Amino acid sequence: MFLAWRLLTGRGRRGLLLICLLGVLLSVAGQVVVGGVMQGMIREVENGLRAYCPHLMLRSSVWTPEQLEALPEVRRASRGTAGMALVDGALCSYVASLPLAAWPEGERLALDDDCCVISATCAERLGEPLELVMRFGAGEADERRLRVVDVFHVPGRMKSPDVVCFGALPGPSVIGLELEPWGDADELAELITRRDASALLPALWDGNAGWLGVLAQLRASLSFLFAAGVLASAFCACALLMVGALQRRGSMAAYLAIGATPRALAAVYAWQALLLMAAAVPAGLLLGHGLLLGREGLARVFEFCGMGMYDAQALDMPLPAAMWPGLYAYAALTSCLALAFSVLPAALVALRSATPRALAGSAL
After folding, report:
1. Are residues 266 and 183 part of one domain?
2. Phi, psi of 330 (to 5 degrees)
3. Would you call 166 exposed, middle or buried from its count of C-beta atoms within 10 A (0-12, 13-18, 19+)?
4. How far is the C-alpha of 109 from the C-alpha of 150, rounded, in Å?
5. Residue 349: pLDDT band by 50, 70, 90 thresholds?
6. What is the model's pTM?
7. d(Cα 58, Cα 82) in Å, to the nearest integer?
């Protein structure tokens, strides 16, 4: 816009260019900060989902782990124990002998039966102990000493166990279910209780999984629309330059009139050509998404380009309709940013012009 103003009116000061550059820098910095915060939120929720593997626990006299493992939404089922124990005078919940494969440290720590991990809130409440003395009854025979090897944190979880032990502990028998990524805990719980009305389903599954999907698709949509806006705005930049320059004697004459050297002129045209070629990328992606590849094919393209598994999976999660106007407004703003970037070389050439009134006067 600065270049167009200078070409058409012959007026323009360095302060205006500095203001434009400052706006561009602030906008780019805002994009980076917002993207980083959103990525951090996704990572935090993702860590919460992975920190405790059994997404669902139940007590049932009808279902067996083998029967539950045969259900399509269940990846693994195992039998363990769960209950309440007295730890240093505080009543704490615990689970034992349930799989922790989704936790990176789980397989390594599962080698020792006298090890346990405790939640961050439990560690804070007990003063970050190195050893726990758990009492399950009144006698000393029901006492168990466990070494604390790690502390886990599950954000947003209202009911997470205080102590997770890899060995056997006394207590009521429970079945821990590790669900498939597409598994729906609510539907599975309804299926289980339909057959066994007495099945007790503690709410240990993290309800933030839906937020993970929304955040992932929001980030994927913003990233895609940002890239599409940046690349497609090259057409606007080219049209601005060509229409303004061809009003009299053609673009080359206009550029030479404002003092551009042949080398600078070649650089400007090369920059515009690269942007125009790159502008075909979002058009191809949109065409492939709508007609050729479909959601699954485009998801594979996203993964191949390194945008991440959750960005690809997010394509299958519909966004609320109210979000789309905001996303397109965001794309329009990023198009303005790209316009500023695409005309920046020519704007610098215009600043050095000895005859800035290239198009405002009657002669070039």
Report:
1. no
2. -65, -40
3. buried
4. 9
5. low
6. 0.44
7. 10
